[in-house]
Amino acid sequence: MTERLPITEADVQAYADGRLAAGRRAELEAWLAGRPADAERVAAYRRLNEELRALYDPVLDEPVPERLRAAPRARIRLGAAAAALAWLALGTVIG
């Protein structure tokens, strides 16, 4: 017989997101049946998920503005240069 693992916050979050495996979902639902406060917390997480999707899902279909598509490349180069300079400065201080 397999030992049941305790329900974790990660399980609760995955359940609220609809991403918990079927077998574990049944265990969590049984666990929630005896814990009304936790069941309400999960219901609140689900409501929040629905509200966020309603607000932000339409944005997923919008095209990325040109100014934002070009910006990351410049930032990466500047960041790499800054990191290289910091590395060199650290090497001279330590060495």
Kindly describe this structure.
The chain contains 4 helices and no strands. It is mostly helical and 95 residues long. Helix 1 (9-16) packs across helix 3 (36-60).
Brief characterization of the structure:
By secondary structure, the protein is mostly helical.
Strand and helix layout:
Blueprint: H1 9-16, H2 22-33, H3 36-60, H4 66-94
Helix pairs in contact: 1-3
Q: Overall 3D geometry?
A: flat
Structural class call reads mainly alpha
Strand elements, count: 0
Main sheet specs? none
Question: What is the residue-averaged pLDDT?
Answer: 86
Q: Name the poorly predicted regions.
A: none
Number of helices: 4
Order of helices and strands: HHHH
Distance N to C terminus: 60 Å
- Fraction of residues in β-strands: under 5%
Helix fraction by DSSP (H/I, runs of at least 4): over 70%
